[in-house]
Amino acid sequence: MSWQAYTDNLVATGKIDKAALYSKAGDSLWAQSSGFQLQANEISEIAKGFDDPSGLQSHGLHVLNQKYFLLRADERSIYGKHEAEGVVAVRSKQAILIAHYPSGVQAGEATTVVEKLADYLISVGY
């Protein structure tokens, strides 16, 4: 399966409207849904935030020039919310999945589909 199929599958769940897949270091974009390419500084902040969330805690989580309120930041997952929409970033062994969910989708539903895909990638060595 191509990397693009993973982002397409996230969007096909109906819980995610935009998704991207980056290398674990955040320096390489592997796949994206239409119009969902983060700025270099945004993906860099997220990639660093898994190991040291202090920057995200003090400056917020930024995706596509939108600031999100940081809900969670640990070595595996970073969650952010802005009004009724949100962002989920999950790190696997070799990749970072970043997904946006729109208004009308429950945060728990969106995080579950992204976390499950990360679990699958980890199970196959990615």
From TrEMBL:
Listed CDD domains: PROF
InterPro entries named in the record: PFN (IPR048278), PFN_euk (IPR005455), PFN_sf (IPR036140), Profilin_CS (IPR027310)
Compartments where located: Cytoplasm, Cytoskeleton
SMART domains given in the database record: PROF
Recorded GO MF terms: actin monomer binding; phosphatidylinositol-4,5-bisphosphate binding; proline-rich region binding; protein sequestering activity
Family statement: Belongs to the profilin family.
Highest taxon above the source species: Eukaryota
Name the UniProt record assigns to this protein: Profilin
Pfam families named among the record's database cross-references: Profilin
